[in-house]
Every structure is written in structure tokens, then in C-alpha cells.
Amino acid sequence: MAVFATPLFAQTTTPATPAAQVAQAATSASPASQPSASQPSESNTLPAVKVTGQVDNATDFQSDTSSVGAKVPTALRDIPQAVTVIPKAVLQSQAANSFSDALRNVPGITIGAAEGGQIGNNINLRGFSARTDIYLDGFRDRGQYYRDTFNLDSIDVLYGPSSLYFGRGSTGGVINQVSKEPQLKKRADVSVQAGTHDRYRTTVDLDTPITDTSAFRINAFGQSLGSSRDVMKNKDYGVAPEVKFGIGTPTEITLSALIQHNRDQPDYGVPPLNGHPAPVNRGTFYGYTDDRTIQDVQTFSARIKHRFNEDVTVRNQTQFSHYSTEARATNAASVLTGPLSTSTALANGNFTNIDPSKLFVKLQGKDRNINDHSVYNSTDVEWKFNTGPVKHDLLAGVDLSHETYSNQSFTATSPGMTSNTIGVVPLINPPYTTRPANVKEVATNLAESSANDVGLYLNDTISLGEHWKVVGGVRWDRYEASIKNSINLPGYATRTNYFTSVRGGIIYQPADWQSYYVSYGTSFDPSLEALTLTNGQQNLPPEHNKSYEVGAKLDLLGGGLSVTQSLFSIEKTNARTANPDGSYTLDGDIRVRGYQLGLAGHITSNWQVFGGYTYMDGVILQAFDGTQGKTPANTPRNTLTLWTTYQFTPHWEIGGGPTYMSSRYAANNNFVQVGGYTRWDAMAAYHAKRYDVQINVLNLTDKNYYDALIPSDGGRAVPGYGRTFLATLNYRFF
Predict the structure, then answer these.
(1) In degrees rounded to 5, what are phi and psi of residue 33?
(2) Which residues cross the membrane (predicted)?
């Protein structure tokens, strides 16, 4: 939902000025004019002045800092890894309301759908799963729910293994959601949106100062969304209150919460036929009209930051989260040659000469109740000091966490059918009905697991003269996890893993607009990383990941346009693989190499761009499950995204751009291939002092494409949006 904080016609039209000029201006600025909470003043390199002139840079596509690469706000040029920051200006311009829609701006990301026991946002980053590598304000956001952008200031993506700061996981990188924060400026913004396919949405953003140094802010949304799919319907709402004390003083305290409720229609996609998604109408839905996924999220956070002086800062953060999911879902399982649940099932890509109109699909239940709890605490100290001519920016910290997870699964079986089969429907034009009343639902396995982690880390950024920086760090983790199953094996298992992660980088900055780097990093993936387990893996030590990267970050056109490039290689050197006897060993080897390009900022004062391109060469180098030499699942060779806007009068703005993805495989066995596609989006907006009217067209050419992939049952694919029109009205009371 687009909510512009400032009308575009009120902007200045001068290009962004170099950071050096900003630093000079900031020296004499009053406290009220210092950077906002989203751009703290402790950053080594202050942000460049943007064309909006507003505190929150509500209309700027370019970002200068991020905390995702160093735990604290750091200039992007000082992070020796590729980073993509999606600011809220891009999300507003695109009317990107969901987390998945927002991530389409990130090259190298692909979307997975609900899989097995996993529900919610499932992301692949540079060819590796990042489902447990999603963060909210620096803490792991491990719940299985569908995230929204209503309370986000930006989404920051750090590429490559990053266990130094984030502990377990982060094979392909991490994704951090940055929440909006209270500011010492009164605001009241309301936005309403309506679109085709019965899409309706409202958001509210209220901010009020309490004292000269404290403020309260609350964001809320509610929506009812239809779809170009025949049956899909989602109804969601959420609220995010936050209060901040001591703004601009040495001690700042922030208390915040996120409360969200989703009642969505689960979509398990289209089954494969002859090695590709079955040739059915885009709206075809396999399931029942009363299928549902009900999710509740409650997250509470407390942060305190104390600045002793310009050189020493201490921070402590605590977060408690509870996530619950009730799923009554149906998926298209086997493709059958007859109308009975015992009919012959196709396999291995479902190759057949039988006419699709004579084939059938078995519908299976995916019913389960999931509960996640987590408590995180992080304390860090930042100390800036000199040893002779050498400058140090030292960061040391300790992370503590406790997580629990439970998953009660069910079988749902109709009379006369094989176990966990609810129905059999034609592949072409299946009927849409409610779930049969005589379905027998039986509770099956209850999986309960917990984990405790202690992480100690130390990182130093060393400045050698004006042009060179050396970044080096080390982290030690003790990760203890256990699982208990009521029926499945293992009945009980526990394992404690110790792992040391490292990170190193060299940065060369010959001018204030150039930064070149080389880096190396590691991470680890324990068997119980997601607090779920496949039997036979419980005694295996963690998988190891390593990354090499070389890149350049350039600020062109007077600092107005950021251009980044990188070459990378990520390798999982001891991947878990299944042996013919059903056991598992750490003998696999998966590698993804590639190139990435990113653009963000102004070409002229009225013309902005945001986009990127990634080339990925992924290969399973070694495996004993028949996948050696194959391409990893959901790893396209090429991905490209580009969004551009042009303000051709003080009031009128137009924009648009393509999203391209080449073909990819649904599973590591490469039996099912999903074709590539190019989707075009467009927008037009009128901006006045108090309001904006914006029209967005998603999938302008009505391209029939597949968006999210599911590896199970041979490999299913979920169709993307059909052509969708969205009209948005934003009103500002102040």
C-alpha cells in the first residue's frame, strides 16, 4: 500500500551531493536536523543529501547505510559483501504490499511455496534456502507466516554466508526487515486501495511526539484480497505500535510490538505433466473452497542504546515471539491414470502419452497445527580507537536464544480411499466444493523440539590510511537442539554442535565514490537448524559453507546513482545426502558461482532507477542420491529486475519495468522444469500537497507464468498474478 510521506512536487530538483558535503553540513546542524532513527549518527559515513529533503527520504530509491552487514548502521561502501537495500519508496511506488512482492526487487532471490511442514514465506537466496534466515530488526524471524510490508522502512539483503553476526544458517545470505521508528514530527497518513479480483486494503501510519525527546508511532493495516486464481481469498490485519524515549540523547530506549492475523487460502499449485507444469488454465485450483491457513503472530521487542562518548556505544536488545498456525489444506499429489485413489500413479516428471483430459489428481490433506516460540537477547559493544596511525572500529557481542517448536500433523481420509486421500478430481477442470463432510481426520505424529544457542563474536574494521580497510572477525557458537516424536522416528534425539565462523575482507577506496573489495566468509547448518529433522540425520555434524567474493561499489553521477558489481562463489562442502540404504552422510558438495549487478538512485533529478541482474551457475558436484551433476532446485541461470520512475511535471509521475527469470527446476532431480518468463509492471501517479492518487498495473501483458515452486510430489508450481489493476489514494493530515 503506497503511503507517500511527502508530495513529489515539494522536492528540490538538485541532484544528490557527495557525502563529503553532507558531513560538512552535519557538523553545524542542530540536534533536530540530525539523521533519523533509521539512519543513526554513529555511522562512519553519513548519508548523502537526497532530493526529497525529508527526514525519512520517503521518495528516494537510493540508500547509503545498512545494519545487515555489521550489526550496526554502516556505510554500504564499508561492507565487503554485496548488499541490496529495498527502501520503502520503491515498495510504495510498486504498491508492493507483501514480503514476497517486495523481494522481487532482489536479484538472485527465488520464491518457494508451502512445503511439507513449512508454511509462509519460503525463500531461496543465491540457490540456497533462506527460510530460517529472515530477520526482523536484527533478530531471527523464524515463524511460518506470510509477512507484510505495512510497518517496514526497508528490507536489507546481505549476500553470502554470514554466521559471524547471525549464527547458524545464512548459506546464501540473510534478509532483514527494518521496522519504521517513531520520529519527532507529527504525522497522520491514511491510505486506501482497491483493485481487480476483489482486492481491498487500508493502512494507517500515525506518529506523535510525547516530549521533546520521545515519540509514539503506530502502523496498522487490514485487507481482503482475491486472486486471478479461481478460489483464492485472503483476509489479514495487523498492528505495530512503538514508543521511543531519549531520541537524540546518549540513552535511547525503544519498545515495540508486531501483532498480525492472517486467514489465507493455501495454494499448493499445479502438478507436473511431461516434465513441466500441467497445461491447465491459470485459475485452476486443486483443493477445497473451505481450505484455510490461520496464522497469528505476536512479537515484542525492547532495545536500549547508550552512547558513553563518540567512541564507545553499548546496545542491548531482547525479543519475544510467538507464532501459531492452524492449517486445513489440500494439495495436488499424484497424477493418476484413473478416477480411483488406487489407480496407477505417474512418477518422475509424470511423462505420459495419455490425453490430459483423461488423467486425474489425488488430493491429499496437509492438516497441521504449528506453534513456534522464541526468546532472543543480544548485547554488543562498539569501540572506536586508534593504535598509532591505524584506526579501529571494534564490535564485540554475545547472542543468547531459546526456541521451541511443535507440529501436530493429521491425516484426512475419505471413506473408501487410501490413507490421507480426501478425493480424486480430473486434471482438467476439477470441481470446486467444500471438503466432504464424511472425511475422517486422525491426529498422527506430534513433533516437539527446542534449541538453545550461545554465540560470542568479535569483529574489527581497521582503517589503514585514507584508502584501505581490513575487516576481520570470528564467532563461536554452541548450538544445542533436541526433538521428540510421538510416532515418527527418531523417537527422541539431541545433539550439541560447536562451530567457529570467520569473516575477512579487504577494501580499497581510492576516492570517495569508489570502493573495491575481496572477502571470505563461512557459515554452518546443523541438522536441527529449523527444529525439524529427517530420520537418519540426527547424529550428523553441521554442514559447512564458504564464500569467496570480489566486487566494486561506485557512486556515479555526482553520488546520485549507486552501481554495484560482484563475482561470487558459494559452496556447501559437506552437504547431507541420502544413501541407497536410507541412511545419510555428509558427502555432498553443492556450489553456486555467479555475477551480480545492482543499480539504485537518480539518473537525472526527475528520473530514478532501481534494479539488478544475477547470473548463477549452480551444480551439485557430488551426491549419492542420483542428483550428482544436476542443477540445484529453484536456481535459475539468469534473473533480472528493473523499476524506473520519471516525474515529468511537478505533480505527475509515471513508472514501470520488467522482472525476468530464466527456466529453473522444481527439485534437485531435475525431472520437472518450469519455463522462464518476463513480467511487466507499470504505474502512474498524481501528487498534491495533502494527497496522492496512484494507479498500478501488475503483469501488464497478462503473462501466464509460474511464480513459486514446491519440490515435493514430483515438483509443483504456483501460477503468478494475472493482469491486476490497483488504485491507491493516500491522504496526509499534516
Answers:
(1) -95, 5
(2) none
